[in-house]
Design goal:
The protein has 308 residues and is an alpha/beta fold. The protein is 21% helix and 23% strand. It contains six helices and 14 strands. The strands form two sheets. A seven-stranded mixed beta sheet has the order 1-11-12-10-9-8-7, covered by helices on one side. Helix 3 packs parallel to helix 4. The longest helix is centred in the first third of the chain and has 13 residues. It is globular and about 50 Å long.
Length: 308
């Protein structure tokens, strides 16, 4: 977790918030500045809505780090079904499958369908391996999208943008948006006022967490430049299978847990990959996220919960 600003939100405060993340905490983002409260200390405002973020289900993964990724996905779905207020929809930030097989896609669709929610997808690098698997992915998850699968939609006064940064991977597997998608993004934002809350979601983080591991997007600076005029921008990503947050000006970045297996923290292992933890502890490392939008146009409350 990083904070690159000099306006009072200190590194010490940031690290304190990091310790709370995912342990029953509501993040409230106001004008790009995060504050933390224990769950239950705040009620959703009238006229608000919430949505769910799920990520990195890796259906088809059957290794010691998690011998049954289908079971943990179903447990995550049970968490969603048990939420007291039904979410308006779900976003999925990629790696639905592990090897992009049609059966993995279809099994995931069937399981996620239990939520009875509209689901908006962004692909992961495990979902699109080549032109054939890209076509299979787009056929199932990309209806209504543009170009290589990117699109936007509006809900309750918030503008949502789904980006694809897993097709033309760069050195060490860094994500890439590409000129065509960046041009589309610039055009998509032209009609939006500066006060419009923006939520961007993509698989690979849009900030450089660990470039040597491919945990970042090479040309994200251009996308963030287009977002600079907006008062509230929230970026939701998957890929790294753990919670991290950064605030940079008006943009708050959040990564999400996987429903399949954890990965090591940057610098704690020779390379990224499935992290083996004691079987009884696995569900503490997996989870889902609920995001609530309240009456104030710059407030988003983010709650991460594990599967234990």
């Amino acid at each position: 977790m990083m904070d690159q600003r000099d306006d009072g939100f200190s590194r010490r405060q940031t690290l304190k918030c990091m310790l709370w993340a995912g342990t029953g905490v509501v993040w409230t983002v106001a004008g790009g500045v995060p504050a933390s409260r224990l769950i239950g200390s705040a009620k959703a405002a009238e006229g608000s809505f919430s949505f769910v973020q799920m990520s990195d289900c890796h259906i088809g993964f059957e290794k010691p780090a998690n011998p049954d990724a289908r079971a943990t996905l179903n447990e995550a779905i049970d968490k969603v079904l048990a939420m007291p207020d039904k979410p308006a929809f779900m976003i999925h930030t990629g790696d639905i499958s592990h090897t992009a097989k049609p059966q993995e896609f279809d099994d995931a669709l069937q399981m996620i369908g239990r939520t009875k929610l509209d689901v908006h997808y962004a692909p992961g690098e495990h979902d699109i391996l080549d032109p054939k698997t890209e076509a299979a992915y787009l056929d199932r998850f990309g209806k209504g999208s543009t170009g290589g699968g990117w699109y936007s939609f509006d809900h309750g006064g918030v503008h949502f943008i789904s980006l694809v940064n897993v097709v033309d991977l760069k050195k060490n597997g860094l994500g890439s948006l590409g000129a065509n998608q960046l041009e589309w993004l610039e055009d998509d934002l032209k009609s939006k006022s500066n006060s419009t809350p923006i939520v961007v979601f993509a698989h690979i983080p849009l900030w450089m967490i660990a470039p040597e591991w491919g945990w970042g997007t090479e040309d994200s600076a251009q996308a963030l430049a287009y977002l600079a005029r907006f008062g509230s921008v929230t970026v939701l990503n998957g890929h790294i299978h753990q919670l991290m947050q950064k605030v940079e000006g008006n943009v708050t970045f959040h990564t999400a847990r996987s429903t399949a297996f954890p990965q090591p923290a940057p610098g704690t292992a020779p390379a990224p990959g499935p992290k083996l933890v004691p079987a009884g502890e696995l569900r503490k490392w997996l989870g889902v996220r609920q995001v609530s939008y309240s009456a104030s146009p710059t407030n988003l409350a983010i709650t991460d919960s594990d599967l234990s």
